[in-house]
Amino acid sequence: MESDRLFFLFDRLEQSYIGEAIRNSIWMFPVIEAVHLIGLAILGGSILVGDLRLLGLLLSSKPIQYVIRQTTFMLKLGLIVLVSTGIPLFLSEAIKCYYSRAFWIKMSALMLGLIFLFFIRNPICLSAEEDSRKFKIIGSISISLWAIVAGSGRWIGFS
Amino acid sequence: MLEIAIWLSETEWSIALLESLYLYPWIESAHVLSICFFIGTLIFVDLRLMGVVFNKLPISEMNTRVLPWSIFGFGLMTITGLLLFYAIPVRSYQNIFFRFKIFLILLAGLNAFLFHRQMSLEGKKWDEGQNIPKTVHLKAAASLILWSGVIVSGRMIAYNWFDCDRQPQPEWVNWAAGCVMELSLTGGFDGI
Predict the structure, then answer these.
(1) Do A41 and B39 touch (CB under 8 A)?
(2) pLDDT tens column, B9-43
(3) Residue in A30, A48, A71 nearest the CB of B37
(4) Of B44, B57, B151, which is closest to A34 when you measure between CB atoms?
(5) Mean pLDDT (chain A, rounded)
């Protein structure tokens, strides 16, 4: 019953004006997809610079707080680009996403990634004093979650 | 060049790669995810040059601490990219987006060369607090624009709108893609 309702919702989303417009155009999906990839570069780079610092692999002589602060703006910009292009991409093929395991893995990892980022990683990294082991664990979790988001995202296209 | 591509497409490993169920998608995924390492970290190097982020860090430190990760990412992209080309050589060689992408990569390479030459001449003064010249800002902006163009045109390679085996095309398209009509009308050598 629940999944029937969910399917109905996804069906309605697929029939939405935006979804329809993207499906009826040859170039809209590719162009939005390409901008989505630029968003990936921005977000992925911001996450990486922060996480590699937490792992002690980049700018390790500089304070963690400084590196996190300097990457937060681009991180949010990347998120905005990704979400605002990701939603129309989803609308254009909502039913395909409904049946795609990769899509559900991506959405789950995305939720975990966002919660971890804004409620655990950033608050701890911006307040705590140096404790390299703790930061290494946070960095590894963060990098793994976002790798799953990006990797399963690519896989939606193969399924 | 076309002969080389045709020869490549007929080698055993090229066919195996193209027909592989999982290897090709995995290499392609690695190629896409490497964007984060390469262009993602390069964005910060370029934004530092433009004075947007990490302004407390000397430019030389940005180049010795962050740029190596961009170069690592570039290495990943090159290896996976060459493999992807090896799997589909003829169709890629005759794809206008692929050709445009290579053209943009060459421009970005030239831009990087010019920047590094300028930095080796004047970089010390930038670290000592002298204002970063406008020409450096321009090169950093050019880097961001060119690499974004590489991402976009790379993504478009997947689409066959202008492929040689889809005729008729405008004359300039066939010219830009290097289509050889007799060959291409027989259906392409990559089996697509």
Answers:
(1) yes
(2) 988 899 988 888 889 999 999 999 999 999 999 99
(3) A48
(4) B151
(5) 94
